[in-house]
User: Fold Tc1-like transposase DDE domain-containing protein from Trichonephila clavipes.
Amino acid sequence: MELPAIQLSLSKLFLAEQNIPMLDWPGNSPDMNPIKNVWELMEREVAKDVITNKTLLLERIIHVWNHHPQMQETVQSCIDSMPRRIEVLIAAKGSSTKY
Assistant:
């Protein structure tokens, strides 16, 4: 799920204002983003319900985020995998990786 350009710009501005550092994302490795694993879990769980409006969707997303037994483990796994992902990317000199 990619953000529209304006949202991405606003997100970057917010992070900069909060002094939160960001890494440049290598163009050859879009799959390096570990958050896709979290989104896959979220999408699977949200799709189990009939969602008829934006409010119900938001409520379901929040519920899954806060209460799904695998969510914390999935998020932690994403965090833990980053050093390994970065090492592989550096070794590949920014080229495609297995991630």
